[in-house]
Amino acid sequence: MSLVPALYIVATPLGNTGDLSPRAAGVLTDADLVLAEDTRRTGALFVRLGIARRDGLGFTSFHEHNEERRTPAVVERLQAGESVALVSDAGTPLLSDPGYRLVRACREAGVPVHPVPGPSAPLAALSACGLPPYPFTFLGFPPRKSGQAETFFSAHRDTGATLVFFERKSRLLESLQAAHAALGDREFCIARELTKDFEEFVFGRLGDLSLLEVELRGEFTVVVAPPDAQGRTAESEVLRILDEEQALGGKPKDVARRVAGRVTGWTPKQVYAMQTAS
Hints:
five-stranded parallel β-sheet
């Protein structure tokens, strides 16, 4: 395969090796240099895919800790007429993976950048989960601290978009709790092992996280529906539930959280404001 000198952003399989396109295989076989987030992982993938690179072709690591340092040298090689392929551990590069600085540097230097599209975890999850697929906003990984995560989700509360984000097992419940506090009760789907033998879609509501008892491993793609996916609970119904919860007692903020867990499309902050206004 004859490659025009350029940076190629190559999508690789999420799990099923049959998802690699013939074009992507050709680029990965013949590029003068392959940049990989994890060279051992990508090397093992090449073996499974049957990709055999000729002697003399480059293969080096390119990750979040060395991207800034290695970008100038990569741009120099591109300007000298070489072809470079960028891959992440799985799926489409740059989506919560390294590469943005390199692509921007190439654009600024006048170096062509060509996408080689293919597998993408956010799009795969959206296409098969049954929640509204558009408009959607991809958020990457939420912040680790719960307060920051709640602020992070709050920024997207009123957009009307489906929200898609990545999360790890150790952080999943905390991130869903932060999403509930910021967004109110919404439908969600957890997609795991996409395209693999044990592919799984787990459904729930942010207001009923106690029901999330399934054993989950690895990293996940989470899809949170917009508030009108099931229809926003009418204000009159919210007021009725608010009366019930106030009768049970508790601090206003605690009451607001309980009410938000029973209704759709209302955040604890909105319910709390309703209390103070009455």
